[in-house]
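SAMPLE LOG
Freezer: B-3
Tube label: C17
Construct: single chain, 506 aa
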Amino acid sequence: MTSARREHPERGSGLSAAIPARGNYHTIAALRRLAHCAILLLSILTAASAHAAKISDISKTNLGEQALRFFTFQDPSLRYALIGSILLGITCGLLGSFIVVRKMALVGDALSHAVLPGVALGFLWGQTKDPVAIFVGATIAGLIGTTAVSLIKQTTRLKEDAALGLVLASFFAVGICLVTMIQRLPTGNKSGIDKFLFGQAAAISAGDVRLIALVAVLAILAITVFYKECLVTSFDAEFARAAGFPTQWIHHGIMLLLAFAIVVALQAVGVVLVSAMLITPAAAAYLLTDRMHRMLLLAALFGMVAGVLGAFLSFLGNNLPTGPFMVLGASAVFVGAFLFGPRHGVLVRWWKRRSRADRIGRENALKSIYRVLEERDFQGDGVSLRELAQLRRESIEEARAASLELKRHGLVSTHEEGNMIFFTPSGWQRACEIVRNHRLWELYLTNAVQFAPDHVHEDADKIEHVIGTETVRELERRLQFAKRDPHGRLIPGLDDIYPAGMPRRA
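STRUCTURE (predicted):
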């Protein structure tokens, strides 16, 4: 069972589209390129280390000078913050995609808060901000938190959301207490442990970036190697289990990678905002595509964009936080996808609905002009505004507005100061097509479905605007190329729609 098409099940795809074939090859190749980029970013780090309270420490510069200074990459702290932010964006985008499609967004939020006690214990272990000690402590705390959630679900009647809320609040409270204790130590105020709450990308060191790059490469490699397994278990765990996939191992592996990503992201965006970096780029990608491999690549790209925006905007001013700007950058990307996404964007859907309504209005006006001509047995070519208004039961001004709209689209021409309307060749074709569609559908409902002739008009009014050419041809064949509708009116044929010498549509 293989398929090159990957769709989210919420949008109508079945499980048969879960296992990748050709799309898997392109995904693996793209993920490998991401891994190479991560290694390249790590290799360009300079040997010097830098620690600063903020990325930009120049107070008397204008925005232009600061922007120019940013793109020269002269400051070591800027380089570390920028590379770390890009790597975090890639990691969070990739792992966040699986969190979104698995409907586990709250799990990421709970896990990000649960690691705080581990961060504090890792600091207490050596009384320094040793990246490795903090990484190990935070990872252990995160795994304990996820285990606690599972135990609460399995041994009580509580649902997952309640268990996540309990673990999130309890672990975060313990972490706050430990951080407060550390700050009361003789060197606590200089420890920088409080920066893990809200993040401080400027404090990222070369060691932090190496650790972030290691996690990024590990996540890319894991997704590349186990892409098929992660994909199938994400969309239908029951099917994956029946097919022999180790669903529990895959779930725990994703949770472990998620814990790694959260821990290395704490320094940049903090406990409070790290879940936003996991969810927001992936959610934006989810709105733009129905294919998992494209979603992964888009989420990684959006995460990178958010990282660069966060570093750039915080560099322009003094004491501006990088982490919140990264989240705002990701949120801006999401808002763009939400409003302007080609398929699911709110404004795009509104524009499509409006365009469809305008098109239907024009086609109804064309049909009315045809009917006026038909009622007088097509004597004369023009239709007056008064005749059109009487048929449509509207005012002269409304009929004039409809004629001007048709004229703007090249469907009619007007004469005698706009009081007479004449079909253009394209307008005549479209009018005949709409009338034909309407009357064929009425005849089909009457003959095949046994509807009463006086009950088919409203349904035909709707279907006439959306029926396709192939469906029309099939209707004509089934109705044996009937010439009249149930009411005895002529159905326009191909010779009416496309007079001699005029090219026909396929």
